[in-house]
Amino acid sequence: VNGPLGPYAALDHCFTVSVDSVPLRRYLEQVLGPLALPSGRDPAAAHYELTVAEAPFRLRRDGRVLHSGHHRSRPTAWLFFDVNQQALRATDGTIVHAAVASPDGIGAWLFPAASEQGKSTLVAGLVRTGWTYLSDEYAALTPAGLVRPYPRAIALDASAWPVFDPPPPAPPAAVERFWPAQRHVAAPRRAGRPYPVVAVVAHAYRAGGSTALRASSGLDALRTLLSCSFTLDRRAQADFALLARLAEHAASWRLDVGDLVKACKLLSSNALP
Amino acid sequence: VTVSGRPSRHPDVLLTEAFEGYVALDRRTNELVQLRADAGLLLSQLDGSLTVEQIVAESAQGGDIATVRQWLLGTLDALDEASLIEYGPT
User: What pTM, to 2 d.p., does this model score?
Assistant: First the structure.
């Protein structure tokens, strides 16, 4: 199976991937496409090696075994988990657990939340209505408070698929067995440069709950940003100062999401003139 | 009111200028405290090197020492109540 895929950049984590399955290789090429580095840029990169053709199924990074087992679906999921973890380690600056999108291609809206609160689902809903996509996982901030794009394919867990009409497309059958738990959506409009942060939306998904958007205080936004910061422990004072400045100047909202379509409409009607 | 000792910002307290004053984060409790600009500025300068009386003298700079002392003691008391400062030896 040809040479490695890539190089790709997950923020400052650069990597290439080789895989011993032609259909999975084709699918990974699509899914990782948004992270592809421009041709001619070939930085020192970590190399992942996926072995899925026969057991034991493995994932290696630079020769080190990260996962080995008898479940065909695990190594690919591990690849994406590790890419995210390495991106967090390799990238300088403040990083907040947040989805990020822009309604107008100018300013970024941050949607900080803990895991399983519907970040990816919400941002997938927004990009369907025309928002520009920056990330479904990390808001990586520059010292000036701009948010860098991390436009990996939006990863939707099975619980989110029925929320969409039409549902996110399934991968080809030959691929699904390698990666059954998630579907990946490439956003049609992706940011190509850092955006200034103009709004912070603390949000939570409640199945069957009501949907409401209300203005909140800057301190409320700051509390949420601090609780979702991955880097507060290692960059305490710098993180705190940056997030306070950001919360002070951005609009602050709280969003309860029971109905995704309604939530996206509320956000768009408040974001666009 | 603690009137002796050398006050300093507690090492677990982060402080930054924002929201038209200062905001402090107590890492022990993750509590955010919004401070008036004068209280925040004082907290930013407390490093345990000066006694309360030395701070009064520096702050007064020829002005009304009694008024400065009253403000300083009241402000230190509020910062102490919020657990944002600690006192070193006199």
Answer: 0.93
